[in-house]
Amino acid sequence: MNLQYGGRPVAGFGVGAPDVVGSGLAALQATVAQYSHRITNPSKAVADLQAAGLAAVSTVGPAIDALAGGNPEVMKLTQLAWRQNGQLAAVNSSGATGADVDAAKEIVNQMIAAYQSARLAVGSAPRSAPASPSVPDAPPDGGGFLDWIAAHQTALIVGGVVVAVGSVALAVADPVPRRRLA
């Protein structure tokens, strides 16, 4: 979802966006856990770990970068995970052995650590928000509230009900008084 304010993109903000980072990390961790016990098909295990790594670099990394607003310190960590995925792709999956599975699991664990560090850095990294136009906190002198709403194409939401949009005001009332049931 690409949100904009004043015609400019707003980084690190979303409404109802799915947690791609959390679910992607959980998928990586689940794949490692799946192959933490006795493995009967090492080639399938390596292929599954490689598929999970590829899915993560296609979704988790870009999601973290977007949340960070392009912060270079965070991007260093997601790029590290990208390079680690390149190493993972090089692990032998055709006729794999237990050692190949262990190597693939270790690389995936390193990717998980890089993504978790990047995720933590997103919250502590300073963000440079794009300059946005100033919006007054109150209606200007000489104008009424609805004039201000109309001028700013703003909606006032009270209790989940849209009260005013643009220059159209809606009166919302409960026309039928409700009685309490005993």
Brief overview:
With 182 residues, this protein is mainly alpha-helical.
Question: How much is the average pLDDT?
Answer: 75
Shape: globular
Give me the strand/helix succession: EEHHHHHEEE
The span between the termini is 47 Å
| Cα radius of gyration in angstroms | 25 Å
The total count of helices amounts to 5
Stretches with pLDDT under 50, minimum 5 residues: 13-17, 127-136, 156-175
Helicity range? 40-55%
Q: How much β-strand is present in the residues?
A: 5-15%
Describe the structure.
The protein has 182 residues and is mostly helical. It folds into two domains: 4-124; 134-182, no CATH class. Helices cover 52% and strands 8% of the residues. It contains five helices and five strands, in the order ββαααααβββ. A three-stranded antiparallel beta sheet has the order 3-4-5, covered by helices on one side. Strands 1-2 form a two-stranded antiparallel sheet. A hairpin with a 2-residue loop joins strand 3 and strand 4. The longest helix is centred in the middle third of the chain and has 27 residues, at 98-124. The model is unreliable at 13-17, 127-136 and 156-175 (pLDDT under 50).
Protein topology:
Elements: E1 4-5, E2 8-9, H1 20-34, H2 42-67, H3 72-89, H4 98-124, H5 145-152, E3 155-158, E4 161-165, E5 168-169
Antiparallel strand pairs: 1-2, 3-4, 4-5
